[in-house]
Amino acid sequence: MYKVKVFVTLRESVLDPQGTVVKSSLHSLNYQEVTDVRIGKYMELTIEKSDQPIDEAVKEMCERLLANVVIEDYRYEIEEAVAQ
Amino acid sequence: MYKVKVFVTLRESVLDPQGTVVKSSLHSLNYQEVTDVRIGKYMELTIEKSDQPIDEAVKEMCERLLANVVIEDYRYEIEEAVAQ
């Protein structure tokens, strides 16, 4: 069994309106020192072993469903876990 | 200057309908080996040095705005970065 952590972030060149709102909310809470906020998604997947190599499977899932590769970047961490 | 990564996830006991939908989408794409999906938020903050210790400031921001501590857990990583 694997525990996979997937991080999906907007590409640098893409505007992040949600991040802008969070930044101005932090400013109005008096955290003027915050100069930039970027918001992304974080996913934890639990995956059983299968015939397909895990690395290849996760890459495919990201490309096909989890990330919109036109405007988003993704990275992932795979951890082997002992079934409980 | 600090780069701070914040991870906000739903507590274990809280249902994650968005994760359930992603899981069934993955199943319909033929990734039957995925047994669980949990979806959270990932935020990257850029913060200038200030009088308040960074660790304390980030904790406060999480508690006051970034996470809903009733149903969400958060953790963060602080990295000191050289201003460019």
UniProtKB/TrEMBL annotation, chains A, B:
Family: Belongs to the PurS family.
Subcellular location: Cytoplasm
Cellular-component GO terms for this entry: cytoplasm
InterPro entries given in the database record: PurS, PurS-like_sf
Organism expressing this protein natively: Cytobacillus solani
Primary localization: cytoplasm
GO MF terms held by the record: ATP binding; phosphoribosylformylglycinamidine synthase activity
Function of the protein: Part of the phosphoribosylformylglycinamidine synthase complex involved in the purines biosynthetic pathway. Catalyzes the ATP-dependent conversion of formylglycinamide ribonucleotide (FGAR) and glutamine to yield formylglycinamidine ribonucleotide (FGAM) and glutamate. The FGAM synthase complex is composed of three subunits. PurQ produces an ammonia molecule by converting glutamine to glutamate. PurL transfers the ammonia molecule to FGAR to form FGAM in an ATP-dependent manner.
Name this protein carries in UniProt: Phosphoribosylformylglycinamidine synthase subunit PurS
EC number: 6.3.5.3
Entry-linked Gene3D superfamilies: Phosphoribosylformylglycinamidine synthase subunit PurS
